[in-house]
Protein 1
Amino acid sequence: MEKQRHSDFAAPVSPARDILDHSGRRLARYWPSWLAPQAQARLWDQLQALPWQQPQVKLFGQAHPIPRRQCYLARPGCHYRYSGLLLAPQPFPAALEPILTRLNALGQWGFNAALVNHYRDGRDRMGWHRDDEPELGPKPDLAILSLGQERVLRLRWQVGPSEGVALAPGSLLWLEPGVWHGLNPSARASQARISLTFRRVIPGFHPDREQGITGAD
Ligand SMILES: O=C(O)CCC(=O)C(=O)O
Ligand SMILES: [Fe+2]
């Protein structure tokens, strides 16, 4: 056990790099190899067993399936409302517990939830958004752990030019609270990517009895 932990986490973590916009304002901090390859592989395998969903969301009055699969993991009582869906927590798989502990030691972020996204190939994507739901509090920290296919996340403070950051497998990206971001489709990406976007949800913000809970079946 001790040996395994050593191989996962004691490898030197590359120093963080700031990602700045054209005016020099920081958008994010990037750690290129935060999680060792062995730990990435173990986590990837455990995530395959999650109850993945591809819910429909309404866009201009019409229902469309989201262009990726997702699963919401969180501590009990930490429901999350996102794009008109109320997501009920699924438990964290065992491989994620030491990762959560290590993350919360790194940034004092108090993460208790993660939206896990599965991009099956380069066609799957995520539109521009910022994670500003009220249950995340006024200054939400967000950190993205990436596995599998490298994809480019675009970042910006306002409409206009954006910065792209290629998210390598095993990398960690902390976003400045309130920054806009999105993942474009990529013709070159043929393999699957999984991202885990860690967040802190205010426990009990959405009472369990609210209607429209998905993700609990
Ligand atoms: O997959 C990514 O890197 C971004 C995911 C994201 O922005 C989110 O889950 O809110
Ligand atoms: Fe996001």
Protein 2
Amino acid sequence: MTPDAADSAAPPSAAPRPLAVVRAMIDALDRDLMQILARRMALVAEVAAYKRQHGIKIRDAQREQEVLRDRHERALELGLPAGEIESIFRVLLRSSRDHQAALRAEVPASETPYTISIIGGHGKIGRLLARLFGDLGHRLLIVDTDTTLEAAEAAAASDVTVISVPIDRTEEVIRAVGPHVRPDALLMDVTSIKSAPMEAMLASTTGSVVGTHPMFGPNVHTLQGQRVVVCRGRGDRWADWVTHSFTARGLVITETTAQQHDRAMSVVQVLTHFQTQVQGLTLARLGVPLAETLPFTSPAYLLELYVTARHFAQDPGLYGPIEMRNPRSSDVTAAFGTAVQELAQVIAGGDQAAFTRLFEEVRAFFGDFTAEALVQSSFLIDRIVERS
Ligand SMILES: C=C(O[C@@H]1C=C(C(=O)O)C=C[C@H]1O)C(=O)O
């Protein structure tokens, strides 16, 4: 035991001190802890300045592994729950990276400040992009249905024009704005489908073109580690600038073609959202009130419920077009229907052997991923239980 810890521990034989006294001591210790966190963040800011000066990336995975291993060992030595302490340090590392990104650690001091128009800049994703580019030191022109600034004049005055409008309107806005983008400038979009908007962008401007799709919504707490898909259309210099700007703010990039993106989204978005909607619709129609089930939640049911209810807390105008405009949606929903019927028949027939065969078929599809899934979903369950 360290001398400090000895100071706060009660003598072994004494009766426990009054609750109010011990709580006041805990408050004081927590304040010390926060002072120490503030001191850690001040050091992190110094690291950020050094990295910016020397062109070093914010994230150092090896150093993070060393930090986590060391804190894990020390937790064991101190008799603290090592897994929980590791979780605390993971959160610390993430907020440390976020702090460095906000301090522009990955933005070269020589970075040119550009003029960037966000068409749809008052929408949720538009605001997020405005903050992201603003944090990186660029000048912003915001255009939306309630601004006097018009998209065409903003685009003509900009180095970068970002189309961030609802999917249903994306192509028409691209066609209206594209011709005003200068040949040396960039036209980019952030739509959840990529083939049609990319074609529209390439056809409507002679300038550079980059298609992007942020794989996260506006409600995320931090951009650190969130993913953006980037599709190069025309002009590598601007495409490099886009990927660099995103990684500088902590985002992770997947570069691909518009066709590959749309194929992946038929599973990642269309299937996922569709099954969530089927789950929601079934729950709503089964006639078992939600409240009646809540005192019986298992971890799997609670996780599923949060995912489903989260979906229905959002905008149908966003999800409808994602599912209706993907070229492969009908294949996905047909395969879903087939799977539902097959499984329902097996269950109705009480055929355990057939049930096991289907189970094994899916297990083989997931392969080693099942092990990772167990670890990660257990982590999520722990976190949810911790907050309930
Ligand atoms: C502070 C640094 O940057 C990041 C944050 C770390 C931390 O907070 O300890 C460790 C490694 C980096 O991913 C660093 O490189 O030391």
